Amino acid sequence: MRLYSAIDPRGEGEFICFGEQEAALVLGDLTLAKHHKTRVQERLAEIEKHIPMEIEPAAPKRNKTLIKNLKLAPDLETAFDKEKIRALKMDDADLIDARTGRRLGKSGLAKKRQEKKAKASESDSARTHDIEDIHSFKRQLNDLSPNRFTKRIKRTVNKVGRHCLESRKSGHKACSGVPEHVVQVLEHTQRHPVPLYKATDRTLRLSPFGLSLAQLPKAWRRHLFEDCLEIDADSIQLALAAALWDLPTLQGILSTCTASEQTWWDVLHDYLEQAFPQADLGNNRAPTKAICKTMTYSMVFGMSERNLRRLTITRGSKAGKARFKSLRTDVRKHFGVENVETVTNRILAHPAFQELLKARKELFRAIRRDRGIRDGFGRWIPLRTQNADEPRNVSSMLSDYMQAAEMMAMLPVGKEALGNSTMLLYLWQHDGITVRPKKTDRPSRYRKTLTTLQSAFQKGLKDVEDAFGCKTSIQTQLSVDYCPSAVSDAFG
Q1: Is residue 184 domain-shared with residue 277, that is, in the same domain?
Q2: pLDDT at site 138
Q3: Residue 366 domain-assigned?
Protein backbone atom coordinates (compact mmCIF):
# COMPACT_ATOMS: atom_id res chain seq x y z
CA MET A 1 0.00 0.00 0.00
CA ARG A 2 1.24 3.50 -0.91
CA LEU A 3 0.33 6.38 1.40
CA TYR A 4 1.04 10.08 0.83
CA SER A 5 1.44 12.70 3.52
CA ALA A 6 -0.53 15.94 3.42
CA ILE A 7 -0.69 18.98 5.68
CA ASP A 8 -3.92 19.30 7.63
CA PRO A 9 -5.47 22.65 6.51
CA ARG A 10 -6.73 23.19 10.08
CA GLY A 11 -3.15 23.32 11.29
CA GLU A 12 -3.31 20.22 13.48
CA GLY A 13 -0.29 18.54 11.97
CA GLU A 14 -0.03 15.68 9.54
CA PHE A 15 -2.71 13.28 8.43
CA ILE A 16 -3.27 10.78 5.67
CA CYS A 17 -6.36 11.00 3.53
CA PHE A 18 -7.75 7.53 2.82
CA GLY A 19 -10.33 7.51 0.04
CA GLU A 20 -11.37 5.45 -2.94
CA GLN A 21 -8.04 5.82 -4.74
CA GLU A 22 -6.13 4.51 -1.72
CA ALA A 23 -8.61 1.69 -1.15
CA ALA A 24 -8.27 0.69 -4.80
CA LEU A 25 -4.48 0.56 -4.37
CA VAL A 26 -4.94 -1.75 -1.40
CA LEU A 27 -7.15 -4.01 -3.51
CA GLY A 28 -4.73 -3.83 -6.43
CA ASP A 29 -7.33 -2.69 -8.97
CA LEU A 30 -7.55 1.04 -9.74
CA THR A 31 -10.68 0.60 -11.87
CA LEU A 32 -12.62 -0.08 -8.66
CA ALA A 33 -12.15 3.57 -7.67
CA LYS A 34 -13.48 4.72 -11.02
CA HIS A 35 -16.65 2.69 -10.54
CA HIS A 36 -16.97 3.51 -6.80
CA LYS A 37 -16.72 -0.13 -5.70
CA THR A 38 -13.91 0.13 -3.18
CA ARG A 39 -15.95 0.07 0.07
CA VAL A 40 -13.59 2.48 1.75
CA GLN A 41 -14.79 1.97 5.32
CA GLU A 42 -14.51 -1.84 5.08
CA ARG A 43 -10.95 -1.60 3.73
CA LEU A 44 -10.03 0.85 6.48
CA ALA A 45 -11.50 -1.40 9.18
CA GLU A 46 -9.32 -4.25 7.94
CA ILE A 47 -6.19 -2.09 8.09
CA GLU A 48 -7.08 -0.77 11.55
CA LYS A 49 -6.98 -4.34 12.92
CA HIS A 50 -3.24 -4.46 12.22
CA ILE A 51 -2.02 -0.86 12.50
CA PRO A 52 -2.82 1.51 15.42
CA MET A 53 -4.31 4.78 14.20
CA GLU A 54 -6.89 7.47 14.89
CA ILE A 55 -9.72 7.84 12.37
CA GLU A 56 -11.65 11.01 11.73
CA PRO A 57 -14.37 11.12 9.03
CA ALA A 58 -13.75 13.72 6.35
CA ALA A 59 -16.36 16.16 5.09
CA PRO A 60 -19.80 14.79 4.18
CA LYS A 61 -20.42 13.81 0.54
CA ARG A 62 -16.77 12.78 0.25
CA ASN A 63 -16.00 9.09 0.59
CA LYS A 64 -12.83 9.81 2.53
CA THR A 65 -11.42 9.40 5.98
CA LEU A 66 -8.55 11.17 7.74
CA ILE A 67 -6.01 8.89 9.41
CA LYS A 68 -4.11 10.60 12.23
CA ASN A 69 -1.28 9.45 14.51
CA LEU A 70 -0.54 6.44 12.35
CA LYS A 71 1.76 4.00 14.22
CA LEU A 72 3.93 2.05 11.82
CA ALA A 73 6.66 -0.48 12.52
CA PRO A 74 10.12 1.20 12.45
CA ASP A 75 11.06 -0.21 9.02
CA LEU A 76 7.70 0.89 7.56
CA GLU A 77 8.07 4.30 9.19
CA THR A 78 11.46 4.73 7.50
CA ALA A 79 10.02 3.65 4.13
CA PHE A 80 7.12 6.04 4.60
CA ASP A 81 9.42 8.98 5.35
CA LYS A 82 11.41 8.25 2.20
CA GLU A 83 8.23 8.14 0.14
CA LYS A 84 7.03 11.39 1.65
CA ILE A 85 10.30 13.14 0.78
CA ARG A 86 10.17 11.72 -2.74
CA ALA A 87 6.63 13.00 -3.19
CA LEU A 88 7.48 16.49 -2.02
CA LYS A 89 10.83 16.79 -3.82
CA MET A 90 10.57 15.02 -7.12
CA ASP A 91 13.22 15.40 -9.80
CA ASP A 92 12.91 18.73 -11.64
CA ALA A 93 13.02 16.92 -14.95
CA ASP A 94 9.64 15.30 -14.27
CA LEU A 95 6.28 16.76 -15.12
CA ILE A 96 3.41 15.86 -12.81
CA ASP A 97 -0.19 15.09 -13.69
CA ALA A 98 -1.83 16.60 -10.62
CA ARG A 99 -5.03 14.67 -11.15
CA THR A 100 -3.36 11.25 -11.11
CA GLY A 101 -0.03 12.01 -9.45
CA ARG A 102 1.82 10.26 -12.26
CA ARG A 103 4.98 11.42 -13.93
CA LEU A 104 4.43 12.63 -17.44
CA GLY A 105 6.70 12.09 -20.39
CA LYS A 106 7.84 14.90 -22.68
CA SER A 107 7.25 13.16 -25.99
CA GLY A 108 5.48 15.41 -28.48
CA LEU A 109 5.71 18.39 -26.13
CA ALA A 110 7.18 20.78 -28.72
CA LYS A 111 4.46 19.81 -31.20
CA LYS A 112 1.70 20.41 -28.65
CA ARG A 113 3.14 23.82 -27.82
CA GLN A 114 3.13 24.76 -31.50
CA GLU A 115 -0.45 23.57 -31.84
CA LYS A 116 -1.57 25.75 -28.94
CA LYS A 117 0.28 28.74 -30.42
CA ALA A 118 -1.43 28.15 -33.77
CA LYS A 119 -4.84 28.08 -32.06
CA ALA A 120 -4.08 31.40 -30.35
CA SER A 121 -3.26 32.91 -33.75
CA GLU A 122 -6.40 31.46 -35.37
CA SER A 123 -8.55 33.03 -32.65
CA ASP A 124 -7.55 36.53 -33.77
CA SER A 125 -10.00 38.69 -35.64
CA ALA A 126 -9.20 39.93 -39.14
CA ARG A 127 -9.51 43.50 -37.88
CA THR A 128 -6.56 43.03 -35.52
CA HIS A 129 -4.38 41.87 -38.42
CA ASP A 130 -5.05 45.21 -40.10
CA ILE A 131 -3.05 46.94 -37.37
CA GLU A 132 0.40 45.52 -38.01
CA ASP A 133 1.99 47.04 -34.88
CA ILE A 134 -0.39 45.13 -32.61
CA HIS A 135 -0.28 41.93 -34.64
CA SER A 136 3.53 42.00 -34.75
CA PHE A 137 3.72 42.66 -31.02
CA LYS A 138 1.42 39.74 -30.31
CA ARG A 139 3.54 37.43 -32.47
CA GLN A 140 6.64 38.46 -30.52
CA LEU A 141 4.93 37.78 -27.20
CA ASN A 142 3.79 34.34 -28.33
CA ASP A 143 7.26 33.53 -29.70
CA LEU A 144 9.08 34.04 -26.39
CA SER A 145 11.33 31.13 -25.48
CA PRO A 146 9.95 28.54 -23.03
CA ASN A 147 13.34 28.67 -21.30
CA ARG A 148 12.44 32.13 -20.01
CA PHE A 149 9.70 30.58 -17.87
CA THR A 150 10.43 26.90 -17.17
CA LYS A 151 12.90 27.33 -14.31
CA ARG A 152 10.58 29.79 -12.57
CA ILE A 153 7.64 27.44 -12.89
CA LYS A 154 9.63 24.49 -11.57
CA ARG A 155 10.98 26.54 -8.67
CA THR A 156 7.50 27.71 -7.72
CA VAL A 157 6.01 24.25 -8.04
CA ASN A 158 8.80 22.84 -5.86
CA LYS A 159 8.43 25.51 -3.19
CA VAL A 160 4.71 25.86 -2.81
CA GLY A 161 2.92 23.79 -5.38
CA ARG A 162 4.48 20.35 -5.73
CA HIS A 163 3.15 19.24 -2.38
CA CYS A 164 -0.32 20.25 -3.52
CA LEU A 165 -0.01 18.66 -6.93
CA GLU A 166 1.16 15.35 -5.50
CA SER A 167 -1.48 15.22 -2.81
CA ARG A 168 -4.22 15.70 -5.39
CA LYS A 169 -4.10 11.94 -5.95
CA SER A 170 -5.47 11.69 -2.41
CA GLY A 171 -8.48 13.72 -3.48
CA HIS A 172 -7.64 17.13 -2.00
CA LYS A 173 -9.19 19.98 -3.92
CA ALA A 174 -7.52 22.83 -2.07
CA CYS A 175 -4.26 21.62 -0.62
CA SER A 176 -2.34 23.88 1.76
CA GLY A 177 -4.55 26.85 0.93
CA VAL A 178 -3.67 26.89 -2.76
CA PRO A 179 -6.67 28.03 -4.85
CA GLU A 180 -7.94 25.55 -7.41
CA HIS A 181 -7.33 27.96 -10.29
CA VAL A 182 -3.69 28.39 -9.27
CA VAL A 183 -3.25 24.62 -9.21
CA GLN A 184 -4.69 24.35 -12.70
CA VAL A 185 -2.38 27.06 -14.03
CA LEU A 186 0.70 25.47 -12.44
CA GLU A 187 -0.24 22.09 -13.86
CA HIS A 188 -0.85 23.44 -17.35
CA THR A 189 2.20 25.68 -17.55
CA GLN A 190 4.56 22.81 -16.83
CA ARG A 191 3.78 21.71 -20.38
CA HIS A 192 2.96 25.11 -21.88
CA PRO A 193 5.14 27.65 -20.02
CA VAL A 194 4.95 30.54 -22.50
CA PRO A 195 1.92 32.80 -21.85
CA LEU A 196 0.02 33.09 -25.13
CA TYR A 197 -2.17 36.03 -26.08
CA LYS A 198 -5.08 36.57 -28.43
CA ALA A 199 -7.15 39.45 -29.71
CA THR A 200 -10.91 39.33 -30.13
CA ASP A 201 -13.53 40.70 -32.50
CA ARG A 202 -14.71 43.15 -29.87
CA THR A 203 -11.49 44.82 -28.73
CA LEU A 204 -7.85 45.37 -29.60
CA ARG A 205 -6.78 44.28 -26.14
CA LEU A 206 -4.45 41.28 -26.02
CA SER A 207 -5.84 38.78 -23.53
CA PRO A 208 -4.42 35.46 -22.25
CA PHE A 209 -5.21 32.50 -24.47
CA GLY A 210 -6.10 29.43 -22.41
CA LEU A 211 -4.54 28.85 -19.01
CA SER A 212 -1.60 31.18 -18.53
CA LEU A 213 0.78 32.60 -15.95
CA ALA A 214 -0.78 35.97 -16.75
CA GLN A 215 -4.00 34.73 -15.10
CA LEU A 216 -2.40 34.13 -11.71
CA PRO A 217 -3.48 36.40 -8.83
CA LYS A 218 -1.01 39.12 -7.95
CA ALA A 219 0.30 37.34 -4.86
CA TRP A 220 1.19 34.29 -6.94
CA ARG A 221 2.69 36.34 -9.76
CA ARG A 222 4.83 38.04 -7.17
CA HIS A 223 6.05 34.70 -5.87
CA LEU A 224 6.75 33.39 -9.36
CA PHE A 225 8.50 36.57 -10.53
CA GLU A 226 10.05 37.55 -7.23
CA ASP A 227 13.09 39.17 -8.87
CA CYS A 228 10.99 41.23 -11.33
CA LEU A 229 9.21 44.55 -11.45
CA GLU A 230 5.47 44.65 -11.99
CA ILE A 231 4.76 48.04 -13.50
CA ASP A 232 1.37 49.50 -14.37
CA ALA A 233 -0.24 52.77 -15.39
CA ASP A 234 -2.04 54.63 -12.61
CA SER A 235 -5.83 54.70 -13.20
CA ILE A 236 -5.19 54.79 -16.95
CA GLN A 237 -8.80 54.36 -18.08
CA LEU A 238 -9.93 57.19 -15.87
CA ALA A 239 -7.10 59.41 -17.12
CA LEU A 240 -7.95 58.56 -20.73
CA ALA A 241 -11.61 59.41 -20.17
CA ALA A 242 -10.70 62.73 -18.56
CA ALA A 243 -8.59 63.77 -21.57
CA LEU A 244 -10.57 62.19 -24.43
CA TRP A 245 -13.95 63.33 -23.09
CA ASP A 246 -12.59 66.75 -22.01
CA LEU A 247 -13.53 66.63 -18.31
CA PRO A 248 -11.95 69.61 -16.47
CA THR A 249 -13.07 68.62 -12.96
CA LEU A 250 -11.65 65.11 -13.24
CA GLN A 251 -8.52 66.41 -14.98
CA GLY A 252 -7.91 68.77 -12.08
CA ILE A 253 -8.22 65.97 -9.51
CA LEU A 254 -5.91 63.66 -11.45
CA SER A 255 -3.39 66.46 -11.99
CA THR A 256 -3.28 67.03 -8.23
CA CYS A 257 -2.84 63.28 -7.66
CA THR A 258 0.02 63.08 -10.18
CA ALA A 259 1.82 65.93 -8.42
CA SER A 260 1.42 64.34 -4.98
CA GLU A 261 1.50 60.95 -3.31
CA GLN A 262 -2.29 60.70 -3.41
CA THR A 263 -4.28 58.51 -5.82
CA TRP A 264 -7.80 58.68 -7.22
CA TRP A 265 -8.73 55.87 -4.84
CA ASP A 266 -7.48 57.95 -1.89
CA VAL A 267 -9.68 60.84 -3.02
CA LEU A 268 -12.76 58.61 -3.12
CA HIS A 269 -11.89 56.97 0.20
CA ASP A 270 -11.67 60.35 1.94
CA TYR A 271 -14.93 61.43 0.29
CA LEU A 272 -16.77 58.30 1.47
CA GLU A 273 -15.21 58.46 4.92
CA GLN A 274 -16.86 61.84 5.41
CA ALA A 275 -20.14 60.58 3.97
CA PHE A 276 -20.25 57.46 6.16
CA PRO A 277 -18.55 58.37 9.48
CA GLN A 278 -20.37 55.54 11.27
CA ALA A 279 -18.60 52.98 9.04
CA ASP A 280 -15.21 53.80 10.61
CA LEU A 281 -13.39 53.21 7.32
CA GLY A 282 -10.13 54.39 8.86
CA ASN A 283 -6.96 53.13 7.23
CA ASN A 284 -8.59 50.00 5.81
CA ARG A 285 -8.62 51.32 2.26
CA ALA A 286 -8.53 48.03 0.35
CA PRO A 287 -12.32 47.31 0.43
CA THR A 288 -13.15 50.90 -0.51
CA LYS A 289 -10.70 50.76 -3.41
CA ALA A 290 -12.17 47.49 -4.69
CA ILE A 291 -15.67 48.95 -4.70
CA CYS A 292 -14.66 52.27 -6.25
CA LYS A 293 -12.46 50.57 -8.83
CA THR A 294 -15.37 48.46 -10.03
CA MET A 295 -17.62 51.52 -10.17
CA THR A 296 -15.02 53.59 -12.03
CA TYR A 297 -14.12 51.07 -14.72
CA SER A 298 -17.70 49.94 -15.17
CA MET A 299 -18.60 53.57 -15.76
CA VAL A 300 -15.86 54.11 -18.34
CA PHE A 301 -16.64 50.85 -20.12
CA GLY A 302 -20.30 51.69 -20.55
CA MET A 303 -22.29 49.93 -17.81
CA SER A 304 -25.81 51.31 -17.56
CA GLU A 305 -26.46 53.82 -14.80
CA ARG A 306 -29.17 51.55 -13.39
CA ASN A 307 -26.73 48.63 -13.04
CA LEU A 308 -24.07 50.94 -11.63
CA ARG A 309 -26.41 51.99 -8.84
CA ARG A 310 -27.45 48.41 -8.14
CA LEU A 311 -23.94 46.97 -8.56
CA THR A 312 -25.24 44.19 -10.74
CA ILE A 313 -24.95 42.80 -14.25
CA THR A 314 -27.82 41.32 -16.24
CA ARG A 315 -25.60 39.68 -18.85
CA GLY A 316 -22.26 37.96 -18.66
CA SER A 317 -20.75 34.83 -17.19
CA LYS A 318 -21.75 33.12 -13.97
CA ALA A 319 -18.34 34.09 -12.57
CA GLY A 320 -18.98 37.75 -13.39
CA LYS A 321 -22.40 37.70 -11.76
CA ALA A 322 -20.93 35.96 -8.71
CA ARG A 323 -18.22 38.61 -8.45
CA PHE A 324 -20.80 41.41 -8.35
CA LYS A 325 -22.86 39.50 -5.81
CA SER A 326 -19.78 39.19 -3.60
CA LEU A 327 -19.07 42.88 -4.08
CA ARG A 328 -22.58 43.80 -2.92
CA THR A 329 -22.00 41.73 0.21
CA ASP A 330 -18.71 43.57 0.79
CA VAL A 331 -20.43 46.94 0.43
CA ARG A 332 -23.06 46.09 3.03
CA LYS A 333 -20.43 44.78 5.43
CA HIS A 334 -17.81 47.49 4.90
CA PHE A 335 -20.20 50.46 5.09
CA GLY A 336 -22.73 48.96 7.50
CA VAL A 337 -25.73 49.50 5.22
CA GLU A 338 -28.63 47.30 4.13
CA ASN A 339 -29.09 48.81 0.68
CA VAL A 340 -26.00 49.04 -1.55
CA GLU A 341 -27.57 51.97 -3.41
CA THR A 342 -27.02 54.08 -0.30
CA VAL A 343 -23.30 53.84 -1.09
CA THR A 344 -23.36 53.74 -4.90
CA ASN A 345 -25.65 56.78 -5.09
CA ARG A 346 -23.19 58.71 -2.93
CA ILE A 347 -20.27 57.64 -5.14
CA LEU A 348 -22.12 58.71 -8.29
CA ALA A 349 -22.96 62.03 -6.61
CA HIS A 350 -19.24 62.95 -6.54
CA PRO A 351 -18.64 65.90 -8.92
CA ALA A 352 -16.17 63.87 -11.02
CA PHE A 353 -18.67 61.02 -11.46
CA GLN A 354 -21.43 63.48 -12.33
CA GLU A 355 -19.13 64.93 -14.99
CA LEU A 356 -18.37 61.42 -16.29
CA LEU A 357 -22.05 60.50 -16.51
CA LYS A 358 -22.93 63.65 -18.43
CA ALA A 359 -20.05 63.26 -20.89
CA ARG A 360 -20.83 59.60 -21.42
CA LYS A 361 -24.45 60.34 -22.31
CA GLU A 362 -23.28 62.88 -24.90
CA LEU A 363 -20.86 60.31 -26.36
CA PHE A 364 -23.63 57.71 -26.56
CA ARG A 365 -25.82 60.19 -28.45
CA ALA A 366 -22.97 60.93 -30.89
CA ILE A 367 -22.44 57.20 -31.55
CA ARG A 368 -26.13 56.69 -32.29
CA ARG A 369 -26.23 59.78 -34.50
CA ASP A 370 -23.13 58.82 -36.50
CA ARG A 371 -23.95 55.09 -36.47
CA GLY A 372 -20.49 54.35 -35.11
CA ILE A 373 -17.25 55.80 -33.76
CA ARG A 374 -13.63 55.97 -34.94
CA ASP A 375 -10.85 54.91 -32.55
CA GLY A 376 -7.30 56.20 -32.29
CA PHE A 377 -5.96 53.63 -34.76
CA GLY A 378 -8.34 54.90 -37.42
CA ARG A 379 -10.70 51.90 -37.21
CA TRP A 380 -14.36 52.64 -37.79
CA ILE A 381 -16.43 50.80 -35.18
CA PRO A 382 -19.94 50.52 -36.66
CA LEU A 383 -23.07 50.48 -34.56
CA ARG A 384 -24.29 47.46 -36.51
CA THR A 385 -22.03 44.70 -37.79
CA GLN A 386 -22.54 42.50 -40.83
CA ASN A 387 -22.78 39.51 -38.52
CA ALA A 388 -26.36 39.46 -37.26
CA ASP A 389 -25.36 37.05 -34.50
CA GLU A 390 -23.08 39.69 -32.94
CA PRO A 391 -25.17 42.83 -32.45
CA ARG A 392 -23.32 45.85 -31.09
CA ASN A 393 -24.61 48.33 -28.58
CA VAL A 394 -23.21 51.68 -27.58
CA SER A 395 -21.89 50.33 -24.26
CA SER A 396 -19.77 47.61 -25.88
CA MET A 397 -18.59 50.10 -28.52
CA LEU A 398 -17.47 52.51 -25.81
CA SER A 399 -15.50 49.70 -24.17
CA ASP A 400 -13.85 48.87 -27.52
CA TYR A 401 -13.07 52.55 -28.11
CA MET A 402 -11.48 53.09 -24.68
CA GLN A 403 -9.50 49.85 -24.70
CA ALA A 404 -8.05 50.78 -28.10
CA ALA A 405 -6.81 54.04 -26.57
CA GLU A 406 -5.28 52.08 -23.69
CA MET A 407 -3.56 49.76 -26.18
CA MET A 408 -2.14 52.75 -28.08
CA ALA A 409 -0.71 54.19 -24.86
CA MET A 410 0.81 50.92 -23.64
CA LEU A 411 2.08 49.51 -26.94
CA PRO A 412 5.37 51.48 -26.93
CA VAL A 413 6.03 50.16 -23.40
CA GLY A 414 5.62 46.55 -24.50
CA LYS A 415 7.69 47.04 -27.66
CA GLU A 416 10.48 48.69 -25.67
CA ALA A 417 10.53 45.87 -23.12
CA LEU A 418 10.71 43.27 -25.90
CA GLY A 419 13.27 45.08 -28.03
CA ASN A 420 15.61 46.47 -25.37
CA SER A 421 18.63 44.21 -24.88
CA THR A 422 19.01 45.25 -21.22
CA MET A 423 15.67 43.83 -20.02
CA LEU A 424 13.40 40.78 -20.24
CA LEU A 425 9.62 40.95 -20.58
CA TYR A 426 7.63 38.18 -18.92
CA LEU A 427 3.95 39.16 -18.80
CA TRP A 428 1.64 41.60 -20.60
CA GLN A 429 -1.35 42.71 -18.52
CA HIS A 430 -3.33 45.32 -20.49
CA ASP A 431 -2.23 48.35 -18.45
CA GLY A 432 0.99 46.89 -17.08
CA ILE A 433 3.86 44.48 -17.59
CA THR A 434 6.14 42.18 -15.60
CA VAL A 435 9.76 42.84 -16.51
CA ARG A 436 13.28 42.37 -15.20
CA PRO A 437 16.68 43.86 -16.06
CA LYS A 438 18.96 41.20 -17.56
CA LYS A 439 21.56 41.96 -14.91
CA THR A 440 20.15 42.19 -11.41
CA ASP A 441 23.33 42.85 -9.44
CA ARG A 442 22.57 46.50 -8.65
CA PRO A 443 19.37 48.37 -7.70
CA SER A 444 20.29 51.05 -10.24
CA ARG A 445 19.61 48.58 -13.05
CA TYR A 446 16.02 48.23 -11.86
CA ARG A 447 15.69 51.99 -11.67
CA LYS A 448 17.02 52.38 -15.20
CA THR A 449 14.55 49.78 -16.45
CA LEU A 450 11.68 51.78 -14.96
CA THR A 451 12.82 55.14 -16.35
CA THR A 452 13.35 53.64 -19.81
CA LEU A 453 9.82 52.25 -19.82
CA GLN A 454 8.41 55.49 -18.43
CA SER A 455 9.90 57.33 -21.41
CA ALA A 456 8.27 54.82 -23.76
CA PHE A 457 4.95 55.35 -21.94
CA GLN A 458 5.16 59.10 -22.41
CA LYS A 459 5.54 58.47 -26.15
CA GLY A 460 2.43 56.29 -26.07
CA LEU A 461 0.46 58.99 -24.25
CA LYS A 462 1.58 61.56 -26.81
CA ASP A 463 0.39 59.24 -29.59
CA VAL A 464 -3.05 59.10 -27.96
CA GLU A 465 -3.21 62.87 -27.43
CA ASP A 466 -2.33 63.49 -31.10
CA ALA A 467 -4.71 60.83 -32.43
CA PHE A 468 -7.68 62.20 -30.50
CA GLY A 469 -6.76 65.88 -30.55
CA CYS A 470 -6.82 66.14 -26.75
CA LYS A 471 -6.90 69.68 -25.40
CA THR A 472 -4.98 68.68 -22.26
CA SER A 473 -2.34 66.10 -21.42
CA ILE A 474 -3.29 62.69 -20.06
CA GLN A 475 -2.74 62.68 -16.30
CA THR A 476 -1.26 59.27 -15.54
CA GLN A 477 2.16 57.77 -15.03
CA LEU A 478 3.86 54.40 -15.06
CA SER A 479 4.72 53.27 -11.54
CA VAL A 480 5.96 50.18 -9.70
CA ASP A 481 3.27 47.96 -8.23
CA TYR A 482 5.82 45.62 -6.65
CA CYS A 483 9.55 44.99 -6.82
CA PRO A 484 12.14 42.78 -5.08
CA SER A 485 12.54 43.86 -1.47
CA ALA A 486 16.30 44.13 -1.95
CA VAL A 487 15.88 46.98 -4.45
CA SER A 488 12.82 48.72 -2.96
CA ASP A 489 14.96 51.65 -1.80
CA ALA A 490 15.71 52.45 -5.45
CA PHE A 491 12.07 53.49 -5.90
CA GLY A 492 11.68 55.61 -2.82
Answers
A1: no
A2: 93
A3: yes
Q: How many Cβ atoms sit within 10 Å of the Cβ of residue 97?
A: 15
Q: Give the global pTM.
A: 0.74
* 306 in the same domain as 219: no
Distance of CA 402 to the CA centre of its chain: 21
Residue 300 maps to a domain: yes
List, for the chain, all residue ranges whose pLDDT scores fall below the cut of 70: 1-18, 21-35, 37, 52-113, 120-130, 159-178, 201, 385-391, 492
Q: Is 163 exposed, middle or buried (0-12, 13-18, 19+ CB in 10 A)?
A: buried
Question: What distances in angstroms separate CA 289 from CA 153, 157, 236, 342, one per listed residue?
Answer: 31, 32, 15, 17
Question: Domain boundary at 224, 245, 265, which?
Answer: 224
State the pLDDT at residue 5: 37
In a domain, 70, yes or no: yes
pLDDT digits (tens, 9 = 90+) for 418-451: 999 999 999 999 999 999 999 998 899 999 999 9
CA-closest candidate to residue 15, choices 65, 50, 67, 52: 67
Non-local CB neighbours of 9 within 8 Å, separated by 6+ positions: 174, 175, 176, 177
Q: Report CA-CA distances (Å) from 300 to 47, 253, 275.
A: 63, 17, 24
pLDDT value of residue 319: 76
Residue 1 lies in a domain: no
Q: Looking at the structure, do residues 174 and 297 belong to the same domain, yes or no?
A: no
**Can you say whether the dihedral through the CA atoms of 263, 264, 269, 270 is positive or negative?**
positive
